[in-house]
Amino acid sequence: MKFLDKIMNAELEEKFFKKTIFITIMVIFLILIIVFLNMGVMRSYKIPANATTKNDNKEKVDFAIDNIVTGRKYIEIEGWAYRRDKNIGYFESNFIIKNENSQKYYRLNTDMVYRGEFFAVDEKYDCRRAGMYAKGLAIGLPKGLYQIFIEYKSDDENIVFDTGKVFKYGG
């Protein structure tokens, strides 16, 4: 009941309210920082056992990497990927990078980008959800050469394949 008494006697306990408001604001600010860092940091990745790892004629995914930008503490990749013979259902595709020295994989949180030019692929398939954009914090990521892979997920498919693109991160 002490807490309620302090609220009732607000005029007498102005310091109590100032401290409470300050602590509440600091806790909210700390939570926002943790959420922000968690969203952008690249996590290690292991290729799922049920994933197809080849992009051959049977599992053909058309793709392109349009842009790769690396900064001191981030990696940014833009591109697109779609199956020629299917509409894109839900989007859960990601860019995966592999360190050439350690052979470790890292997943970048990837967002879908609508691409109008893929509205009518082969005049019948809607692939506007083919666009991909990822920007991740490279905190703790080793410097070196990285291969870019695409984890293509749409409806019941899970295909992880090498794009053939390599970039250098760090000095």
Layout of secondary structure:
Elements: H1 2-8, H2 14-40, E1 43-45, E2 61-70, E3 74-83, E4 94-99, E5 105-108, E6 110-113, E7 131-137, E8 144-154, E9 157-169
Antiparallel strand pairs: 1-5, 2-3, 3-7, 4-5, 4-8, 6-7, 8-9
Note the main sheet. Answer: 5 strands, antiparallel
- Structural category is alpha+beta
CATH architectural group of the largest domain:
Sandwich
- Report the span from N to C terminus: 61 Å
* Arithmetic mean pLDDT: 80
Q: Looking across the biggest beta sheet, what order are the strands in?
A: 1-5-4-8-9
Question: Overall 3D geometry?
Answer: elongated
N-to-C order of helices and strands? HHEEEEEEEEE
How much strand? 35-45%
State the low-pLDDT regions, or none.
Answer: none
* CATH topology group of the largest domain: Immunoglobulin-like
Could you say how many structural domains there are in total? Answer: 2
Annotation, overall tally of beta strands = 9
Helical run tally: 2
CATH class of the largest domain: Mainly Beta
Radius of gyration: 23 Å
Proportion of residues in helical segments:
10-25%
Describe this entry's structure for a reader.
This protein has 171 residues and is α+β, with helices and mostly antiparallel strands. It folds into two domains: 2-40; 43-169, Immunoglobulin-like (Sandwich), CATH 2.60.40. Helices cover 20% and strands 40% of the residues. It has helices at residues 2-8, 14-40, and strands spanning 43-45, 61-70, 74-83, 94-99, 105-108, 110-113, 131-137, 144-154, 157-169. The strands form two sheets. The protein has a five-stranded antiparallel beta sheet, with no helix packed on it. A four-stranded antiparallel beta sheet has the order 2-3-7-6. Strand 8 and strand 9 (157-169) form a beta hairpin. The longest helix has 27 residues, at 14-40. It starts with a helix and ends with a strand.
